[in-house]
TrEMBL record:
Keyword set includes DNA repair: no
Main location: secreted
Organism for this UniProt entry: Urochloa decumbens
Family note: Belongs to the plant dirigent protein family.
The keyword Transmembrane helix is annotated on this UniProt entry: no
Record keywords, A-Z: Apoplast, Secreted, Signal
The protein's role, per its UniProt record: Dirigent proteins impart stereoselectivity on the phenoxy radical-coupling reaction, yielding optically active lignans from two molecules of coniferyl alcohol in the biosynthesis of lignans, flavonolignans, and alkaloids and thus plays a central role in plant secondary metabolism.
Lineage: Eukaryota, Viridiplantae, Streptophyta, Embryophyta, Tracheophyta
Region forming the signal peptide: 1-18
Record GO biological process: phenylpropanoid biosynthetic process
Protein's cellular compartments: Secreted, Extracellular space, Apoplast
Protein name listed in UniProt: Dirigent protein
Length: 191
């Protein structure tokens, strides 16, 4: 019996030793195939992307339009029940005529009965630079009057396949009369 136990122990030691000396790829085969075999050398560090989001709800050419009005019983400060659809420009700087980096396409709806709070679902569609043709999907709560907000990144396409991370939002400019706003985005994404 002791001979069988020693033989089994030696067999297990050999298996473990053989596995530990087998050449390893930088990434699992499934991931390598999906990414075309390319992986960022600093894959543990998030990518930081900075831009400005321009939400224009007023004027002759709005980039966000209301498709559902809030019920009359809703608090006028919360916009509870309102739904807007957007195709907002993303730019390098805070000016509307700054270089374009992409579009924010999706919707936001008043989802807080007590204060201004939106449920926001959108794709950041990059149209220039290193991420041209790639997208990031964001989904979460956005309270525009808070100094800093976070929206989680729940996925992406192109260079951002398997993306996860978050976006920090800061209101750069807000016109309380029209509702137009410019929001600064700092995006941190693992991909």
């Amino acid at each position: 019996m002791a001979t069988k136990a020693v033989a089994l122990f030696l067999f297990l030691v050999l298996v473990v030793a053989a596995e530990s000396h087998r050449p390893q790829s930088d990434e699992p085969p499934a991931t390598a195939a999906v990414h075309g075999g390319k992986r960022r050398k600093d894959a543990a560090a998030p990518t930081h992307i900075h831009f400005f989001f321009h939400d224009t709800v007023s004027g002759k050419s709005p980039t966000a339009v209301r498709v559902v009005d809030p019920p009359s019983s809703s608090s006028p400060m919360s916009f509870f029940g309102m739904v807007n659809v957007m195709d907002d420009p993303l730019t390098e700087g805070p000016e509307q005529d700054s270089a374009a980096v992409g579009r924010a396409q999706g919707l936001y709806m008043g989802s807080d009965q007590a204060k201004l709070g939106f449920f926001q679902a959108m794709n950041l569609v990059f149209t220039s630079g290193d991420y041209n043709g790639s997208t990031l999907a964001l989904l979460g709560r956005n309270c525009p009057l808070d100094a800093v907000r976070e929206l989680p990144i729940v996925g992406g396409t192109g260079a951002f396949r398997f993306a996860r991370g978050y976006a920090q939002l800061r209101t750069h400019w807000l016109d309380f009369r029209t509702g137009d706003a410019t929001v600064e985005y700092d995006v941190y994404v693992m991909h």
